[in-house]
Give the backbone structure.
Amino acid sequence: MAQTAVHIDFQPIGRRIQIRSGATLLEAAQQAGVGLVAVCGGSGVCGTCRVRVLAGQVNPPTPTEEDELPAEDLAAGLRLACQVQVQSDARVDVPRESLSAPQRTQVEGESLAVPLAPAVIACDVALEPATQTDLRSDWTRLLDGLAAAEVEAEVPQDRFVLAALPPVLREHGWRVRAAVRGREVIAVGPVERAPLGFAVDVGTTKLAGYLVDLTTGRTLAMDGRMNPQIAYGEDVMARISYAIQGPEHAATLQRAIAEALNALLIDLCRRAGARLPQVVDAVMVGNTAMHHLLAGLPVMQLGTAPYVAAVSDALDLKARDLGLEMAPGAYVHLLPNIAGFVGADHVAMLLATDTPGKPGVTISLDIGTNTEISLNAHGRLLACSTASGPAFEGAHIRDGMRAAVGAIERVRIADGRLNYQTVGGARPVGICGSGILDAIAQLRLVGALTEQGALLPFARVRAADHGPEFLLATAQESGHGRDVTLSRSDVGEIQLAKAAIRAGMRILLEEAGLTEADLDRVIVAGAFGTYIDVDSAITVGMFPPLPRERYFQVGNAAGMGACQCVLSVQQRRLAQQIARRVDYLELTNDRRFTDRFTQALALRPDCWDEG
Amino acid sequence: MAQTAVHIDFQPIGRRIQIRSGATLLEAAQQAGVGLVAVCGGSGVCGTCRVRVLAGQVNPPTPTEEDELPAEDLAAGLRLACQVQVQSDARVDVPRESLSAPQRTQVEGESLAVPLAPAVIACDVALEPATQTDLRSDWTRLLDGLAAAEVEAEVPQDRFVLAALPPVLREHGWRVRAAVRGREVIAVGPVERAPLGFAVDVGTTKLAGYLVDLTTGRTLAMDGRMNPQIAYGEDVMARISYAIQGPEHAATLQRAIAEALNALLIDLCRRAGARLPQVVDAVMVGNTAMHHLLAGLPVMQLGTAPYVAAVSDALDLKARDLGLEMAPGAYVHLLPNIAGFVGADHVAMLLATDTPGKPGVTISLDIGTNTEISLNAHGRLLACSTASGPAFEGAHIRDGMRAAVGAIERVRIADGRLNYQTVGGARPVGICGSGILDAIAQLRLVGALTEQGALLPFARVRAADHGPEFLLATAQESGHGRDVTLSRSDVGEIQLAKAAIRAGMRILLEEAGLTEADLDRVIVAGAFGTYIDVDSAITVGMFPPLPRERYFQVGNAAGMGACQCVLSVQQRRLAQQIARRVDYLELTNDRRFTDRFTQALALRPDCWDEG
């Protein structure tokens, strides 16, 4: 076969590469800088580099693929990139779970198709100019014009919107586009501009923003960036501690997040070729503390028992009152909170995953420093929050780090050999949450770790000052002069974290008179949850040992929920109904919790004493 | 009679003085610093120092009083202060028209009793503290408490109000006062504070502010101050010219007025022993340009034909959006405008004077650089604005000045002798509007001035470079080295001003098929209108020659209208109904205007050619 050049188009990241015909998709991905997970380095043993060929000629599945991929995945067209040789131009879908961190923008998620019902609609009107015999005020004239177009609106009670009309009318020949929200005109401008919406998942660590066209529902641009409040405290409690030191501190946090959101929106607009005044609506979700800090609400009462929110209902606040730069009269819709530690982001996740609408028994959870868990038990909704701590984000772990470049994110011990993959394929700087979970699971599987978390004598297990440790990468490999290791105390941190999650799930089920076996599905959302290996999570006892197909890793469902709500007021109503339907269970009050937590510390799939 | 000391209490200014028994009230007033008008200096010939003795022993009316005062005034208890000798402690009412300028705060006016129906009510609630078993959010808790007190409210969509609750609850034992506007909580605070309202007449030249208790309707404090925008243009047109030079200019004007209003409110609060956060509501009125500049609206279209307002409806804007410091969520209600040159202040005046409710035929007018005139012709409301120019404010007059200390404000020529009175009794610096009007009327009455405005040979009429002039005060009297005079061209300015007013009144009447003789009453409002001598105004032909009792000088009716509206939402509705009922007549379009204006230039009571 003559070696010709072919073009490969990697979706949805949108990266294109030209490569010789006959190359593997893994080679193409590496050359294109697509961070495809490939723990085994392309030997076909790890099964992580899954892709889907959408168009183009490739070889049929190899025996390796038939071994590594479940029949259902093969049937669904999944392939291992290392096994696929391209013979023509091709288009390839890289599933989120096959991407390593640099592409982990966590702005994508499984979106439900939402019928468009935006809060803000655009209405174009052409008006008669004012004359000596028609002295109606500009606003009376506009409202008359809107009424003629069957859009009933009132004079806006907003000086910034009011002020915009006279110049627009006179500079654009008395033709104007009005953005109307209910009966309130929230912006006026030239007719050519489409109204846009801004949806944001305001995470403690990261912001994920989406710019959508409110007339088509299309996402025009999406991007993620760090939450700059991190400089004032890594987790929620640290940030609350900072905020309550004085009004200036709280204001600093509010300004920081507002500035970051403005920068994010400017960037999205630039990429979409749009202008800020086109952005006429926004929906933001976050945990209760992020919600309060964004809205400039006191968090003092979130930091001490009984941990109550200042406000739990959905809010519609003027964007400018939050320091956000959008259309002059635009609002930011903040979804309702459920409790002090179950926030609007969880509501958005429940909405996007349609957890409340699922038949049977479903658990949905978003893993973080606090893990919010909801159970839908045949229509009854229960939620709790459990303090899983920052170990999964690499904190309190000796060589722990966030899922940044150089973090060991996947670990496999196959045929007695350690394989790992780092974010960005860089030299191993440390280890992030998904890597730690993998490492512990693999150590358990090979018998190097007890159920209690003690390291046993094994290859790469060695003695250190603080006890035995597992060598992940040598100083030579890491290049920063230190070995990357996993210690007994690191394992202990993960035990605490996963026990909190497992116990929380269990108590919700108990409250509903159910057991883990009754679970029809477990929906795992969020950055960490999306990239973990569910098998590892089951092996270490974080998740119950259910058939693999009952687990759904759904990406940034909170962000998707925000997007759905920016496209539809029905979705906002649904979110409010969900928030009202959920019964919150305070685990710190629950007498069962300590016992379940203690049992759940064991590193085994079924960690319950009673079987 | 033994000379004993008696106490005199001058009302409503509230000044008290101790004086020897037997002294005249004029002496007492002078000693007390009460600026009682006394043009003749106490000789009993000018009839200007009218007062009413409310309590105490005084001599019966003297023959002088019986000569000078009309029988009806005598019957009503009016006296001349220069003729009244006090024999005991006494309480004396000094009518507004008897006061000279230093007391001309123009914050007082004829107020109608208004049944209290404030937009904002206060509701006190005592709540159960949050506990582990009652985790309602603070706002849910408050709204539940309000509902129990039968006050239905919603979660406020205002971050500043939302933020106030958590600390208030915890610092004041979960007892809180909520200020509720409709269903919106606009402030929360400790229970002890009464809710207050702020009413302001935003004049082009002066601001008049009132602080009222919304639970009693009492006015706690009132004060006036200059509109600082004067530095950027003396009249409306100059200010518009300044504003349209750029957004920064407009913003400067907005900030200037906001800062002055803040300073005024702080001062009123200090005097009433109140605090800013108690101020939960405000009503402001002004002409259309002042309204727009306060609300930060463009004025460009007010400065060029066809002179349309940006908005004519009533507005409820967040006070903080205007830069005003009140309770966190307080609104400012701006009354509706009628047209580009008939503003909310005129609506407030019509409301306060109940012009629309009067039987028969009524004209109400507010004289200024622009004079707004409304006609109620048997229930039909017509309004116009006429460019009367700044002559009455002393501009374009050689020795003209505002009614400040040293301005000649009253002039009488009796028995061939010139008498005048200055504001504050100071040396004559110049002459203000009411003085010019008096001077011209007096010159007409003694035959020193023709109907056309030409000065004839007469005592104190002398030749000057620019033609003949009338000597009001010598350089020696004035003390500033210049004579104070009135020239032909000064008279001409007044002719233009008064002709505009008279023609406007006439055209409104014509439009309704009526004549001046049909007028049952003429209501004259505002600073200038209140201090002019109506007889002088009739003599020069500014006002039609109707019986004196058909004229009513009502003080700052616009300010009173604002007060009524801050006390009652019914009054706001009434104001809107009035604004809608008024048919605006654009005089610049009116073919009759030039003819009527030309005729009205004549300096005689009945200036119409056809009689």
Observations:
- Chain A has a mean pLDDT of 90.
- Residues 391-488 of chain A form one domain.
